[in-house]
Design a protein that fits this description.
Elements: E1 20-24, H1 28-37, E2 43-47, E3 59-61, E4 68-70, E5 76-77, H2 81-89, E6 96-99, E7 101-105, E8 111-115, H3 126-131, H4 137-152, H5 164-170, H6 175-190, H7 199-211, E9 219-222, H8 226-240, E10 243-246, E11 251-256, E12 262-267, E13 272-274, E14 277-280, H9 284-287, H10 293-296, E15 310-320, E16 329-331, E17 339-342, H11 343-346, E18 358-365, H12 375-389, H13 392-395, E19 398-411, E20 431-433, H14 446-463, H15 479-485, H16 489-492
Parallel strand pairs: 1-2, 1-14, 2-10, 14-20
Antiparallel strand pairs: 3-4, 5-9, 6-9, 7-8, 11-12, 12-13, 15-18, 15-19, 16-17, 17-18
Bound molecules: flavin-adenine dinucleotide.
């Protein structure tokens, strides 16, 4: 679609209205599209059905304390170039802290730290890996062999429908190396179990996150609750930059006329929001219901979205009357509790009064085994697990707690899923899709969501004959890594970067 920008008006002619972009969904995909298009002389309306922005990366208010509690800890890595660009764009980039090392506490209680050493990528983590105290020397050799095979594979074995667990078994891994090393990294990065994840996604995490660059693996942790970061701060920024943010405004359906041309979006209230461009940035299981049959049948591959599955994440919030965890964050390989984030240390949020107690956020990704269990049972299992690690947990008083299981936390990165992720541009002129589940080349992450929003915004600018590259490139591999692993991201990664030709 091409929309001619109006010619400069005669001094007495009234200005024609600017093109109107309406975005459904105020998660990171919709927010990224709105932020990228703001301040460009367009009219932008962001429609969000909930009373807050941020989508899955948001907080709820604890009625007992009035405090913002995140639905779950959200971590990004320095290889997330588009999320970083988005945060700079909207002025929240100062609200993160970078962790130069990842702390592991092995089953025998020994601490290991993964940090970049002096060697160039992809060998920068070799020193810390060799010093890691939760794997024996033979296990390290096995893991090293597996990593080398994965890195040098260059995508040849991806897309064959094999699970990563199957690939690992074929490449010399044992249940212990799979449990203590491969699961520890991948289950949290991809929110999927090894026996259900695709080889290509696993390779992408290791190559792009841990091998290609020296600092790509470093974590970025928010210093404020998500509800402030992607909620209130974004609402303020968008309003100041001319975006009309309408909360508690559910979209019922995209409207097309009898000729199939886009008209805008019909709200649940019955109001029609007329628009030249529409970005549907809702989760994959909602998108079909927002598209009328006449539009849906023209969008290739839309029927295949029904084959996508979800994967759950459980977040457990624990407020203790005393300090029980001596780390700011820690990974617990081989346990029910996968990650512990100490929010008293990271965000300065004590649990009891100005200087007392400790507030911990626990993350359990791909928490299929917890789905049938009640909150009390999950909390008790988590407390028992933590008490084995830190016996002081048994003596500490639990002041309060929250257990949040998001059943549809992310789309599941099952083998073959890449073939069913649709591009952002659709066959209906002016209609774009966005969301972490669309074709971004990334797993279900905030980075993927922002990429999709940027891709939709890039498409709109191209249609307005103002082409501009909004999507940031992935981190350039360091020189030695480039030589060893291949040259561009397309050769390095089993999953080619999404095609965004506009
Ligand atoms: C528990 C949990 C932990 C996670 N941890 C991490 C992590 O550590 N790192 C990471 O990178 N990613 C993480 N993720 C994934 C990350 O949150 C998502 O990838 C990202 O937020 C998705 O953004 P999105 O905009 O695509 O979708 P969403 O955030 O789902 O946004 C879609 C929005 O559309 C709105 N909507 C739906 N229907 C309508 C309608 N009819 N009208 C108007 N609005 C509508 C919804 O209310 C929602 O706000 C986690 C996710 C969960 C659930």
């Amino acid at each position: 679609m091409t929309i001619e920008l109006p010619a400069p008006p005669h001094p007495t002619t009234p200005l024609p209205p600017p093109p109107h972009v309406a975005i459904a969904g105020g998660g990171l995909a919709g927010l990224a599209a709105a932020a990228a298009l703001a301040d460009r002389g367009l009219r932008i309306t962001l429609l969000e059905s909930r009373p807050r922005l941020g989508g899955r990366a948001s907080s709820f208010v604890d009625p007992a304390t009035g405090e913002k509690v995140d639905n779950c800890q959200h971590v990004s890595m320095r290889c997330c170039t588009n999320l970083a660009d988005f945060c700079r764009r909207v002025g929240i980039d100062g609200l993160f802290r970078t962790e130069p090392a990842v702390t592991f506490l092995g089953p025998a209680g020994k601490v290991s730290r993964l940090a970049a050493g002096i060697l160039p990528a992809p060998l920068h983590l070799a020193g810390s890996f060799l010093r890691a105290r939760y794997l024996g020397p033979v296990e390290k050799l096995r893991v090293g062999y597996g990593l080398a095979r994965l890195a040098l594979d260059r995508g040849d074995e991806a897309g064959r429908g094999e699970s990563f667990a199957g690939w690992l078994l074929r490449h010399g891994q044992t249940p212990r190396t799979m449990d203590l090393f491969w699961s520890t990294v991948l289950v949290s990065a991809l929110n999927e179990r090894l026996d259900r994840m695709d080889v290509g996604h696993a390779r992408k995490v290791f190559v792009d996150g841990f091998l290609a660059t020296k600092h790509g693996f470093e974590m970025e942790l928010p210093l404020v609750p998500l509800g402030e970061l992607y909620g209130s701060r974004l609402e303020d920024w968008l309003s100041v930059h001319g975006v009309d943010v309408r909360l508690t405004t559910g979209v019922k359906e995209v409207e097309v006329d009898d000729e199939g041309a886009l008209r805008g979006m019909r709200l649940r209230s019955g109001e029609l929001v007329a628009a030249d461009f529409v970005v549907v940035a809702v989760p994959f299981d909602r998108v079909r219901s927002l598209l009328p049959e006449s539009a849906a049948e023209r969008i290739e591959g839309l029927d295949r979205i029904g084959q996508m599955e979800s994967s759950p994440i459980t977040g457990v919030h624990l407020w203790f009357d005393r300090a029980v965890c001596p780390f700011d964050h820690v990974v617990l390989p081989g346990r029910l509790v996968q990650w512990v984030f100490n929010h008293t240390a990271i965000q300065g949020r004590p649990a009891a009064g100005p200087d007392g107690g400790q507030y911990l956020q626990i993350v359990i990704s791909a928490s299929y085994d917890l789905l049938g269990k009640g909150r009390d049972e999950i909390r008790e299992a988590v407390l028992a697990d933590l008490a084995e690690v830190w016996p002081v947990v048994k003596d500490a008083r639990l002041i309060r707690s929250w257990v949040v299981t998001e059943h549809g936390a992310t789309f599941a990165v099952r083998p073959g899923v890449e073939a069913i992720r649709p591009p952002q541009r659709t066959a209906v002129d002016g209609l774009f899709l966005a969301g972490d589940w669309t074709d971004t080349g990334w797993p279900a992450t905030m980075e993927g969501a922002v990429r999709s929003g940027y891709a939709a915004a890039q498409g709109i600018l191209a249609d307005l004959q103002r082409p501009e590259r909004l999507i940031r490139r992935e981190l350039e591999p360091d020189r030695f890594a480039r030589w060893l692993l291949g040259e561009g991201p397309a050769r390095r990664s089993a999953i080619p970067p999404a095609r965004v030709p506009w």
